[in-house]
Sequence to fold (230 residues):
Amino acid sequence: MAPIISLQDVQFRWPGRTGFGLSVPQFELARGEAVLLLGASGSGKSTLLSLIGGTVLASQGTVRVAGEDIASLPGGRRDRFRAEQIGMIFQQFNLLPFGSVLDNITLPLRFAPERRKRAGDVQRAAAGLCAALALPEGLLTAKAATLSVGQQQRVAVARALIGTPPLLIADEPTSALDETAQGQFLDLMFQQIRAQRSGLLMVSHDPRMADRFDRVIEMADFLHVERPAA
Ligand SMILES: Nc1ncnc2c1ncn2[C@@H]1O[C@H](COP(=O)(O)OP(=O)(O)OP(=O)(O)O)[C@@H](O)[C@H]1O
Fold:
């Protein structure tokens, strides 16, 4: 079976920016593998996740998710493919502020029929995730904009986990959580990825949770960053 993530000879530069360039000769993440990616601020961690999620495309080389070359998919199909295959947790949670918590958690299922099927009873699945993340059930009908930052992060986590996508990518997903909530999130996420053999790529600058992962890598181990000369 193809690895869940595979990058080959990838090069990327943000359009209009000459300063920062990123190149990845080779990177793979196996199905069911949990990898913690460590790197200093500005080392390109979020950029790498955007490339894997297909929200930006490499200028050279190939990014494959579940064996599919994401650049070869036309825009609409790429969005649906992403919704089916990838649960994403961003640093900015990207919630719909006027949508309810339930709307936000179930959003990816609207574009992903297979994932929706796996979720079963959608409202029940959302309520179950909220309970596991210690979000009060009454909050399901609240507008996302009325929640605290930590609650919003937990909603973003539930949205990534619903319908058990085969790949989770998470960008500093615990930054707004206190230690108890962090533990709850990590327990839930690892329980789910171990049960479903989902792959996990989490980026962080914090090595403290390293013990839970199959592999811990540093950006500099596999990725070359070009920066402007000082
Ligand atoms: N949307 C964007 N448009 C243009 N440049 C960007 C964009 N996002 C990131 N960059 C640039 O890419 C470089 C790497 O940033 P990136 O956010 O990938 O690093 P990071 O390792 O995730 O940092 P942090 O840990 O602070 O989030 C920076 O120079 C940043 O300014």
User: Anything to note?
Assistant: Residues 14, 17, 20, 39, 41-47, 205 surround adenosine-5'-triphosphate (CB under 6 Å). The mean pLDDT is 91.
